[in-house]
Amino acid sequence: MNFAIPRNDNSEMLLYIWKIIDLPFIQIEDLIYRIAFDLFILPPKQANNFIMNCIKNKLIIKDNNFVRLSEELEQELKNWQKKRENEILGKISTAKKVTQLKNDIDKKDSSKFSILINAFVDKGTLNRSVTISDAAFEFLEYDRSKGLIISKVTGTKEESYFIEIDTNKKIIRHNCHDFEERRAQNKKFCKHITKLFLLLKEKNHHSAEFFLNQLAEEIDKWEFTN
Question: Computed from CA positions of residues 212, 213, 216, 218, in that sequence, does the dihedral angle turn out positive or negative?
Answer without folding.
Answer: negative
